[in-house]
Amino acid sequence: TRKVKRKVNGVEVEVEERYHRIVSAQWVGSHPAMILDFEPVLPKEGEQQAAYRLVERLAKEYGQAIGTLIGDALYDSEPFRRVAGKAGYWIVVRQKNKRIAPGRVLRARLNLRDPERLQPDGRYVEKHGAGSRSYRCWEEPDPILGDLRFVEVERVTTTKGGKREVHTGACLTTIPAKMAPPVAVAMLMQKRWFIESGFHELAGELDLDRAYVHAGRPNATVAIVGLAFMAYNALQAFLYRALGLTPGRPGRTLGDVCNDFWESLGA
Question: Between the CA of residue 151 and those of 74, 189, 219, 233, what are the distances in Å?
Answer without folding.
Answer: 17, 10, 42, 33
